[in-house]
Amino acid sequence: MNPLYDVFFWATIATTTMFIETVVFISRKRYRRAVYAIAGISAIILFEVPRFVIPLLPQPSLGLNAEVALYMGGCTFTLGILIMLISFYQLRTSVQDDRRILQTSGIYGIVRHPMYLGDVIWPLGWSLAFNALYALALTPLWLGLRLSFSILEEEKLTEKYGEKYQDYIRRVKKRMIPGVI
């Protein structure tokens, strides 16, 4: 079988990319700005694009009615994208005196990593919309990768913001899913 039509080939690309992104961004070593830029662009292309493509590849169906799948999936996909956009907007507006301040309100007052939550929800919706069984079955992998990244990222945020971040953790208990994790 051609690997370009293999769901698990693309899942491996996405997973490997997340691993490399984690090594670069969470490393104690300070890299040049260009390294972070390349890693960020690579993450967008090699983590997000495969997850967008996977439900479009040949695989078993979930067996849902096509209209129901499209509606449920479309709503879920849209929710994930909206969560990511709101998170991104709040981060972009949390700058004072050319310095980023810790964002703790709005959507960040509900969970500490809402952008990662959205980044797990949209592929779930995309999988439902296309009635794609294997793509849906990969959702726990995406959640695990984003959860792992958030745990490591919190170490960096604690180093950067100190007691202020610890207070935030005590106030906002959940990392990604309200009431769950």
Biggest β-sheet description? 2 strands, antiparallel
- Count every beta strand, where a strand is a DSSP E run of 2 or more residues: 2
Helix content: 55-70%
| Average pLDDT, all residues | 92
Low-confidence regions: none
Determine the structural class based on helices, strands and strand pairing. mainly alpha
Query: Which oligomeric state applies?
Result: single chain
Keywords:
Four Helix Bundle (Hemerythrin (Met), subunit A), 7 helices, 2 strands, globular
Note down, in words, how this protein is organized:
The protein is globular and about 50 Å long. Helix 1 (7-26) packs antiparallel against helix 2, helix 1 (7-26) runs parallel beside helix 6 and helix 3 runs antiparallel to helix 4. It has one domain: Four Helix Bundle (Hemerythrin (Met), subunit A) (Up-down Bundle). The chain has helices at 7-26, 33-53, 66-92, 114-129, 133-137, 139-161, 163-171, and strands at residues 95-96, 99-100. With 181 residues, it is mainly α. A two-stranded antiparallel sheet has the order 1-2. A hairpin with a 2-residue loop joins strand 1 and strand 2 (99-100).
Helices, strands, pairings?
Layout lengths: L6 H20 L6 H21 L12 H27 L2 E2 L2 E2 L13 H16 L3 H5 L1 H23 L1 H9 L10
Antiparallel strand pairs: 1-2
Helix pairs in contact: 1-2, 1-6, 3-4, 4-6, 6-7
Compact description:
By secondary structure, the chain is mainly α.
